[in-house]
Specification:
162 residues, Ubiquitin-like (UB roll), five-stranded mixed sheet, 4 helices, 9 strands, 21% helix
């Protein structure tokens, strides 16, 4: 019977390459964005050992964009028949965007439904956290339930003439 050593306590910093890899001074080919191959020395590549024991190349995750207080973005809000370009700070919420749109369109904020990337967004969600950037499109729809209530209220208030 053969005993296997567990790699559970092995981390990326304690991992050592096998002797045939460290003694090799060759360069490996890596494809870049332009689909041209260029040689990269093996020592420049950062490696990471995953918990399952798989050795993979470490990825660098870019930091999210930071916004200044004075910066504004343009959001194109589209209705069925028209569109409006709204200038707003990226750190504002969809509720604040609805308040601005209520002044422009005449619809109250509770009558509006805002959709971004195919999903209806809540009033408390921030624009920059959802991914709304400069010149992105947001769809404005009138809430059908409130429109129906308005129609029923108008029909109930009018007398029926025979």
């Amino acid at each position: 019977m053969m005993k296997l050593r567990s790699k559970r306590f092995c981390t990326a910093s304690t991992f050592r390459f096998p002797s045939f890899v460290t003694s090799c001074n060759k360069k490996i080919k890596v494809a870049d964005d332009d689909h041209r191959n260029h040689a990269v020395p093996l020592s420049e590549i950062k490696w990471e050992l995953r918990p399952g024991g798989m050795l993979v190349q470490r990825r660098e995750i870019p930091a999210p964009p930071t916004f200044t207080q004075d910066q504004t973005i343009t959001v194109r809000v589209s209705t069925v028949s028209q569109f409006h370009d709204i200038f707003v700070q990226p750190t504002s919420t969809f509720g604040e965007l609805k308040m601005i749109l209520s002044m422009v369109t005449g619809l109250e904020a509770r009558e509006q439904r805002l959709l971004f990337k195919g999903k209806e967004r809540d009033d408390c969600e921030y624009l920059h956290m959802v991914g709304v950037g400069d010149k992105d499109k947001v769809l404005l729809l009138e809430d059908p339930a409130i429109t129906e209530r308005k129609l029923h209220g108008m029909a109930a208030s009018q007398p029926i003439s025979v």
